[in-house]
Amino acid sequence: MKNVSLLAAAILFAACQETPKREPIVVNYPTTKKVDTVTNYFGTDVPDPYRWLEDDRSAETEAWVKQQNAATFGYFDKIPFREDLKNRLEKLWNYEKVGSPFKEGDYTYYYKNDGLQNQYVVYRKKGEGKEEVFLDPNTFSEDGTTSLMGLSFTKDGSLAAYLISEGGSDWRKGIVINAESKEIVEDTLVDIKFSGISWKGNEGFFYSSYDKPEGSELSAKTDQHKLYYHKVGTPQSEDKIIFGGTPEEKHRYVGGSVSEDEKYLFISASVSTSGNKLYLMDLTDPNAKLVTILDDTDSDTYVIDNVGSKLYLVTDRDAPNKKVVVVDAANPTPDHWEDFIPETENVLTPGTGGGYFFTEYMVDAISKVMQYDYEGKLVREVKLPGVGSAGGFGGKKEDKEFYFSFTNYNTPGSLYKYNVETGEYELYWKPQIDFNPDDYESKQVFYNSKDGTKVPMIITYKKGLELNGKNPTMLYGYGGFNISLTPSFSIVNAVWMEQGGVYAVPNLRGGGEYGKEWHIAGTKLQKQNVFDDFIAAAEYLIANNYTSKEYLAIRGGSNGGLLVGATMTQRPDLMQVALPAVGVMDMLRYHTFTAGAGWAYDYGTSEDDAEMFNYLKGYSPVHNVKEGTEYPATLVTTGDHDDRVVPAHSFKFAAELQEKQAGTNPTLIRIETNAGHGAGTPVSKTIEQYADIYGFTFFNMGYDELPNQAVLKEFKD
Question: Would you tell me the Gene Ontology cellular component terms (predicted)?
Answer without folding.
Answer: cytosol; periplasmic space
